[in-house]
From TrEMBL:
Any one Gene Ontology molecular-function term assigned to this protein's record: kinase activity
Coiled coil: none
Pfam families xrefs: Gly_kinase
Keywords: Kinase, Transferase
Gene3D superfamilies: Glycerate kinase, domain 1, Glycerate kinase, domain 2
Similarity field: Belongs to the glycerate kinase type-1 family.
Naturally occurring in which organism (per UniProt): Nocardioides panacisoli
Protein name in the entry: Glycerate kinase
Amino acid sequence: MRLLIAPDKFAGTLTAVQAAEAIAEGWARQAPGDALDLAPMSDGGPGFVGVLNATLGGELLAGTVTGPVAAAPEVPSTLLVSDGTAYVESAQACGVHLTGGRDAEHASSYGVGELLAQALVAGARRIVVGLGGSGTNDGGAGLLAALGATADVPLDRGVAGLEDLRSVDVAAARERLAGVELVAASDVDSPLTGLFGATKTFGPQKGIPEAELPRWDAALERLAAATDRRMSLEPGAGAAGGLGFALMLLGAARVPGIELVARVTDLAARARRADVVVTGEGAFDFSSRAGKVPAGVAAVAAEALRPCVALAGQVLVGSREMRALGMDSAYSLVDAVGEERAFADPAGALADLAQRVARTWSG
């Protein structure tokens, strides 16, 4: 039997590469004769560069960039260069893991702009920026500043620094990226501002108090008014605290992250060669529908007329909802081995779950 293993990360416990390896290890125990094809996935968030490096190879360039908050003034970074394209993971420079889910009002995306600058120095003629998992909410103002944009207020002080903003000049940043194809890879289709914008949708999970949301949404409105209000309403402008908007101002095209990774990894052809497709993530719930890895992998499996099975830390939907998300079956790690072991030994626990699932699906 031929198995395609295409999970996302299990947030906080396993990278997508580690998850794929754990599933393969457990499956092989039960069905050692099965052919296993490992294709770790990402939607553009944390782990984006590692997933693509596992498939593309290429050159990994290590460096440091400015962190999002004073508590993380300088953070390590790695970008991947392959065939003239640089792949950048914004979470490395401004991820919520760096802010601790606090102080999003002052957190800056300046380091993401520095990552783009490093890609330019490396000679990239195409830059793909994976968006997701950010701890910032500055509309990408910091990114713009790092690339040369200027304003009547500092742009590297987070959204709090934009309250008195009146004018912004992004010409220097655009000139710096002239002739470079820019791509924003994201699963988020929110606009920059408003009821479904970056602040009101994602601000609370970054630590912005509910009472402060209108204030900081208004600050992003000032950024939109000073640059391009119409573009601020585009789907994806609100991705990663508004990094999507900044990249669009610089000419970026937006693509769903899972679709980009699936295309780069040739997932459709690999699914056609498989008998069963296995995916997974930390929590399989209704948010999995909105451009997340399991839904994207399930769509590829359905196109190939192959069954798709999900292994997840937790399964928080019923059988009807599961099938609506494109899954034939879904299995919970916590239900199988208990919460304590799931967190204490995530790789071993996931391998054990995969071994159990193989008893049903192999052969």
